[in-house]
Specification:
The chain is 55% helix and 18% strand. By secondary structure, the protein is α+β, with helices and mostly antiparallel strands. It folds into two domains: 146 residues, no CATH class; 104 residues, LytTr DNA-binding domain (OB fold (Dihydrolipoamide Acetyltransferase, E2P), Beta Barrel). The strands form three sheets. Strands 5-4-3-7-6 form a five-stranded antiparallel beta sheet, covered by helices on one side. Strands 8-9-10 form a three-stranded antiparallel beta sheet, with no helix packed on it. A two-stranded antiparallel sheet has the order 1-2.
Length: 289
């Protein structure tokens, strides 16, 4: 049990799993972008009669690439949350990306001004004139660079979408990722334990708790029925009331009532009242239709 919890924790919260690739890819992107601009910087400095020191330029480009890489996990996350490819409302989602990139460009320029003031000018903060100068010179270019990175991220995501021969592999991976586990973790009395789905007969809300019935035993779990339902294999279970879910193979008999409801008798002899709003679905699932 401890090993299972440890593996699940690492799968969800391992930083290297989520951030290492975007950070490295972002660093390479900004490095290439800055190096592409460097010949123009050298030419303008030469025309002004000034030679850019190689060491200083190396530090500036590396630092700028690192600073740009710091925001690429956020851009990658936003690409997943607000995809441009597929679905509707393209322009609304594109506007979200543009607004975010504009704000990030402003943040990056302000942060870079502070870093230059601390590292090279030995000042606590840059002057407003310097910040304004950098914004006027670089804001539009930086917004363009962020939008270009976002576009590349969307293209990569689109190319990696399953098609052709990869459909079966991707479908199997998706099923494996989303298939409900045979065991469900529950917390009772401050302790974490697992319960086999096959052992559950039925569930019902019980005040602020969820009552889980498995054979003669009943366990109270501090979770809502709707929340617990997401962990269940709903091929095995069916909702019979807004407060109750039953294992389909435990239903022994169904007796209609006058008002459209029905009384279900389980294999252990317990009777549960089924709401008429769920009757058609329960009958279909129980009869195998």
């Amino acid at each position: 049990m401890i090993d299972h919890v440890t593996v699940e924790f690492r799968r969800r919260f391992d930083p290297s799993r989520h951030w290492s690739a975007p950070l490295f890819g972002g660093f390479l992107y900004w490095l290439v972008f800055l190096l592409a601009l460097e010949p123009d910087n050298v030419l303008r400095a030469s025309q002004a009669g000034y030679v850019l020191p190689l060491g200083l330029e190396t530090i500036r480009i590396t630092g700028a690439a690192i600073l740009g890489a710091a925001v690429t996990p956020l851009l990658t996350w936003l690409t997943r949350r607000v995809p441009l490819v597929g679905g509707s409302h393209f322009w609304q989602r594109a506007a979200i990306h543009l607004i975010c990139n504009t704000c990030l460009a402003l943040l990056l320029i302000v942060v870079s001004c502070f870093l230059v003031a601390w590292g090279f000018e030995r000042q606590l903060a840059p002057s407003l004139a310097e910040v304004h100068s950098q914004l006027a010179a670089n804001w539009t270019l930086l917004v363009f660079a962020l939008c270009a990175f976002t576009t590349i991220a969307h293209l990569i995501r689109f190319i990696r979408r399953p098609d052709g021969v990869n459909t079966a592999v991707a479908t199997n991976a998706a099923v494996e990722e989303t298939a409900p586990a045979e065991r469900i973790s529950i917390k009772t009395g401050g302790r974490l334990r697992f319960v086999e789905q096959a052992s559950i007969d039925w569930l019902e809300t019980h005040g602020n708790y969820l009552a889980l019935h498995a054979g003669p035993s009943k366990q109270l779990v501090r979770r809502t029925l709707t929340d617990f339902e997401t962990a269940l294999d709903m091929n095995r279970f069916v909702r019979i009331h807004r407060r109750m879910i039953v294992a389909i193979d435990r239903i022994e008999e169904m007796k209609p009532l006058a008002n459209g409801d029905a009384m279900l008798r389980l294999r252990d002899g317990r009777e549960l009242r089924m709401s008429r709003s769920y009757r058609d679905e329960v009958v279909r699932r129980w009869s195998g239709g």
